[in-house]
Design goal:
Number of helices: 0
Low-confidence stretches: none
Largest sheet: 6 strands, antiparallel
InterPro entries: WD40/YVTN_repeat-like_dom_sf, WD40_repeat_dom_sf, WD40_rpt, WD_repeat-ST_regulator
CATH class of the largest domain: Mainly Beta
Radius of gyration: 20 Å
CATH topology of the largest domain: Methylamine Dehydrogenase, Chain H
Order of helices and strands: EEEEEEEEEEEEEEEEEEEEE
Protein name: WD repeat-containing protein 26
Keywords: Repeat, WD repeat
Structural class: mainly beta
CATH superfamily of the largest domain: YVTN repeat-like/Quinoprotein amine dehydrogenase
Strand content: over 45%
Amino acid sequence: MNAEGKFLMKHKLEGLESPVVVVLWSPDDRQVITCGENEVIKRWDVGSGDFVQSYEKDGVGSVSCGWFHDGSGIIGAMEARRIYLWNLDGKWVISVGREQREISFFDRETGRVENVIQEKDMITSFSLSKDNKHLLIDLITQKIHAWSIEGEPFRYLRLEGHKRSRFIIRSCFGGYGEIFMASGSEDSQVYIWRAGGEPSCRVLSGHSGAVNCVSWNPTDIHMLASASDDRTIRIWGLDDKDAACDDDARW
């Protein structure tokens, strides 16, 4: 916008071969990503207007794209019924396979498969820890599996207690050292577990509809948000920050 209050075109991003259906700013507003049918995901520098990098797999176009919440990676939903996660500076790429029962880890430079996690049941969503060492996998069978993905992958926790029969319910890591795991639930509650395998150590009530998604605050480890079909987002905080899962802890 100039001194007269008029909008002026700052840059024209060129080099796209197909219609663009998504353009998204990065969390620090310094870059944008674009994607569309029969088009790869592309990252652009806003200050200069220069093309930075493209993200593609299997020669298929993208359906949708997004940023990691901290701007450190790219998420792409592709036409081949796969979802990929790229780290901007790392080598790992994660994808959900066509049958939605496996997650493959690729070397970004060579494209070779490094590891594969296979589940017996359909995968509905997954969440990666901040240190890229752990993965939460939500299954259609109303279970959540926690995997260690540093080295040879292995499952170390199976979480149960939440309800899922019709909707996609998403879970996440959080808390100090990300030793806690949280999930929404169709019974209108938020479930929290602590690494160790015991039953859910905390159930948060307050919503009047299915809780579809939970998100742990990236800077305040004692706070998380939940989104529900009741058209509200609730922010939960811990009164006693030393007793996250004690019997008398108050959220």
